[in-house]
Write a structure and sequence with these properties.
This protein has five helices and ten strands. With 161 residues, it is of the alpha/beta class.
């Protein structure tokens, strides 16, 4: 199973559209947005796909954005962490600013911990978990997204131009 991971779009819907073109080309089955969505046009760009997301620290208009996303068929995030189980793997999704994120490495028994927030991509292993930040679609020198093959535990990073 191949998932697409993006973060920190901050309402830059054009960058999200380019990211979705990459994910469509790579034939990802599910998309995870790790927060700081920014606005309705970002959800418009995500619509029609299997998408899960979390709120970031700059997603101020959640009361308007969440029902808008739901009307597009995008499930609400719930409380952090967003816990997913796909392809026999457990995934905890954060933005990265939550207090629960600081303790995730020691408090969660998961295969993957996904986050954004720093606008810097990274990929590290903490015990049995793999901690991944795909980078950012805004305020990053090089804008990036990633795909993760859950069967092969293989991460691929793509530059969004």
């Amino acid at each position: 199973m191949l998932i697409g991971i993006c973060s920190d779009s901050h309402d830059r819907y054009q960058a999200v559209e380019k990211a979705m073109a990459i994910f469509d080309r790579e034939k990802v089955q599910h998309i995870i947005h790790c927060g700081d969505v920014g606005g309705k046009k970002v959800f418009d760009a995500l619509a029609g796909r299997s998408v899960r997301y979390v709120w970031g620290n700059t997603d101020y208009d959640r009361n308007a954005l969440e029902p808008y996303a739901q009307n597009l068929g995008i499930a609400p995030p719930g409380s952090p962490p967003l816990m997913l189980e796909w392809g026999g793997k457990t995934i905890a999704v954060f933005h990265g600013h939550e207090k629960e994120f600081r303790d995730a490495e020691t408090n969660l028994s998961v295969d993957y911990i996904l986050s954004g927030h720093t606008h810097r991509r990274h990929d590290t292993r903490i015990g049995d978990a793999r901690k991944i930040n795909p980078g950012a679609l805004f305020r990053a020198e090089i804008k990036t997204v990633a795909t993760l093959d859950l069967e092969k535990d293989q991460l691929q990073v793509f530059e969004v131009i």
